[in-house]
Design brief:
It is built from 28 helices and two strands.
Length: about 550
Amino acid sequence: QLGTSTRVPVPSFEAMAPAEWRPGRSRKRVLVVVCAAVGVGGIATHVGLLGPSFAAPARQQQKWSAQDTEDLARLDALASQGDVAEARKIFDRLRGSAPAESERMLWNIILKAYKYAADIDGAESWFNATVASGVQANIRAFSKLIDACARAEEPARAEQWLGLMREARFQPDLIAYSGVIEAFSKARDPDSAVRWLRECQSSGLTLNPTCYTSVIDCFAKMGRVEQAVALLDDMEGDGIAADEVAHNVIIRALAEQGDLDLAKARLESMDKLGLNANPYSFHPFIVDCAKNKDSEGASQWLSTMLQRRLSPGVITYTAVVDSYVQANDVAGAFRVLQQMIDNGVEVETQTFNIILRGMVQSGDAEGAAIYLQRLIEAGHTMDYYSFTAVIDGFAKQAQPERAEWAFAVMTQVGVKPSVVTFNALIDAYSKAGDNRGAADVLRKMETAGLRPDVVSYTSVVDACATAGDPEAAVQTILDMQAAGVSPSQVTWKLVIRACKNAGDAVWAAVAFRRLTELGVEMNVAMLAALQDVLGEEGARQLQKEVSAAQPSAARR
């Protein structure tokens, strides 16, 4: 139970402790608070600190073989990738041949793997196994556990591990404190992160820019820009020079909330402080230009970067390309793309997709299809968005045959269509008034293992409306409800349009009653459509009947 105190022998502490304080110590009994019922795996048993001490197996002094050294490098690389399973295989091979003085290093490398995998439960279990094997846990082991908590966004567990670190008579260092600060920052609790920042400071440790930057970034991402700026000022007031990363965070936050003048002033201050602005310093301004369809401004910022001999990356160039697409200037987007290629920047699929989208938006679906085909022939990897953009372009032009061509190519190159892709294909048939073709695509979608959504079914109903087939429209709604998808207001309104196009008074009345039950207020266009089917007097009479039935329906 939480708060229960028990007396336990020290041996496990001796196994963990550094050599300088172990010799000559008597086997005293110490009071330890057992942290049970805190919902933290491993800590209920004091994470191995309360367990028995196991002596490390005796082994002769030996050296690493050439193969062992190679395996050790491979082990460390796998740990840095967070590949626990493969790292443990190499660990099992090396443990038997490792020199005695390297035993703890091997165990810590696996702890490092759990850290990079953000697997705090696995890290805690491994720590317990380390202690149980007789290996002395050192300050690095605790720091790795705290860092694992930070990566897993588990600040409470990071705090508890720092407390256990102290109980094991290790003085937390800057790495340990930074892990706790990072844990709270990632968990979007900047106020607690600041508290630990101050505790680290009061412990006498010299803080570095990284300690502050993670908290500043957290404030900025939460829209608390004033606190972010204030903390940066505090940082400089504490005699710690803010680096480029901290200033870039502030620039991004100010630009995102529309304070471009303040963002520019912050950029200028970097020059005055002797800091080297980098592509990340300029990127927020280019993104803002793209949002505002200011392609000229985006190009000017790009030119400024190049004049400063900076090397814009794919993200920056893509943002400039997007600014031209937003401004409906596809030719300008292609010019920036060519500049990007000329400067040796590898173009990613997202950049091509933005251009495809621009071509479609400008009404050039055929040109987008030709460009997509050329990209595929050139060996570029395209994704579902690439093909969906082209299919959507043909849908807007009511060309289901060409949309089907793009869909077929998509299948041939092994790209799996999404629900959005199928919806675009249905829309192509819908706009062409081919409700049978739309229904066929819906069935094809289900065969592919995808679940049609309200947009899918509504597009089929829209096709029925265009074709003037109210019976098929209502049947689609019945199928829709049987599949557990609720028709929207738009879906029912399309039924009335189908009735108007077919001159079907019966289904028009049914659809009107259903819309009334759903609480939908009919707009002028829909009432006019109802009058077209029922006549002015018939529509007025139906409205009276429905209005009279509403009070009794409400009582039921």
